[in-house]
Task: structure prediction
Amino acid sequence: MKRKYQQCLTTILVLVAAMPAIAAETAARQDDSMTLVYLFLATCGLIIVLQLLPVFTLVYGLIKGIFGKRQEQQKPLPVKNR
Result:
């Protein structure tokens, strides 16, 4: 029983002593996911542009209506059968 206890304690001590090396190895690893980041940012930009298209068309129509040529008022045509 004492032998098992010593083996267990030795295993725990070795793992605790090796933890900084294990953590440093995983922290030093660098994944190259910049392509995915750029795709995500492009998708976000596309969503923003598509959300702004109706605003631009509305402002264009508003400016065109304010500064555009004025048409003469047409007289209503008489309707024969109502």
The chain has a mean pLDDT of 81. The helical segments are 2-28, 34-67.
